Amino acid sequence: MLNKLLSARAGYLLGFVASFASVGLALWIQTRYQLNPCPLCISQRMVLMGLGLLFLTAAIHNPAQLGRKIYAALHVMVAIGGAGVAIRHWWLQAHRDSMVADCGVGFDYMFENFPLRKALTLVFRGTGDCAAIDWTYLGLSIPQMALITFIGFAGFALYLATLKQK
User: Fold this and answer.
1) pLDDT of 62-81, one tens digit each?
2) Counting CB atoms within 10 angstroms of each CB, which of 34, 35, 94, 128 has the fewest?
């Protein structure tokens, strides 16, 4: 029944809206609870926006069956990248007791003052801020929820690849 209600184009638009809604939710949580996002949080938001733009591109393109499979592969690769960032963030939180609390430099400062390779190394190394668990919902930290979100987007993209052309 869902196949009849959801065309590939509508599904891609839904993916676009959902990915940017996820970023909006993250911004709402940040402002509502006065949280400062760490570099890994910002990286996850950037991946979500990239995923959303990829969904929008697919909606505009409205590909046939082969194109939907190619878009699905791209969506899954981006979602896996985001999941990797979320897993790294979750790992840092799980090992926060063994980390030295270090706030490090800001995300903007890293990319303005270091070569790209060094800045990316610093971002993915994480900081004391990345290891802090400042907010949870249903017992899940933000990177755990992000991981679930990325897995969901990957599954949704695979589902869209199976839809028949209308």
Assistant:
1) 898 899 999 999 999 999 99
2) 34
For residue 9, what are its two tokens? Answer: 């184009």
Query: Could you tell me whether strands 136-137 and 140-141 are parallel, antiparallel, or unpaired per DSSP bridges?
Result: antiparallel
- pLDDT-based confidence at 4, cuts 50/70/90? low
Q: Which domains are assigned to the chain? A: 2-162 (1.20.1550.10)
Residue 107 φ then ψ, to 5°: -60, -50
Q: Any idea which residue has 């270091």 for tokens?
A: 114
CB neighbour class for 59 (10 Å; exposed up to 12, middle 13-18, buried from 19): buried
Closest residue by Cα to residue 127 from 146, 145, 98, 104: 104
Residues forming beta bridges with residue 141, ordered by sequence position: 136
Phi–psi pair at 140, nearest 5 degrees: -105, 135
pLDDT: which is higher, 24 or 95: 24
Distance of alpha carbon 23 from alpha carbon 36, whole angstroms:
15
* pTM, to two decimals: 0.80
E-strand ranges in 27-143 read 136-137, 140-141
